[in-house]
Amino acid sequence: MGIAARELSLYVIRPTLLYLGQDNPDAEALLLGIAASQSNLGSALHDRRGHGLYCIREPRHAALWDEYLVHDPDLASLVRGLASQHAFLCSPHLELTVNLRYATAIAWLLIEQQKIAIPAADDLLGMARIWRQAFEPHGRLRDFAHAWRTCVSPLNQVA
């Protein structure tokens, strides 16, 4: 069983985006949908596709640091501030599995670095396209939609 969508959004995704200077409910919904698609909201935090909620592969993680964050030391410092002080130095990719806020920041930056326009939170197909472009190039849009309807949609309807 994964993390409840509402709690993941409220306690992890939203505060992380705010920490990064992104007050954007559409980005929040997109990351929630990606977590649902990639790991069933944390039901599987490590598999052949990558690490953590967002199943980020080690080469993509390293490339983000080496090719994107290297050009923005202030942002790099901000993101590094989310990582564990000592564990990050020994095993940086493990942070993607054990540190939800760090993983969320990295997932957001994988999207941001591509300079992709973020679709509205109610544009399921638009979010699915971003997921496929940024995380699963061979993914099927219907898989994203199914994960959204299964993991996210029912929890958003609870008042």
UniProtKB/TrEMBL annotation:
It comes from the Bacteria. This is Uncharacterized protein.
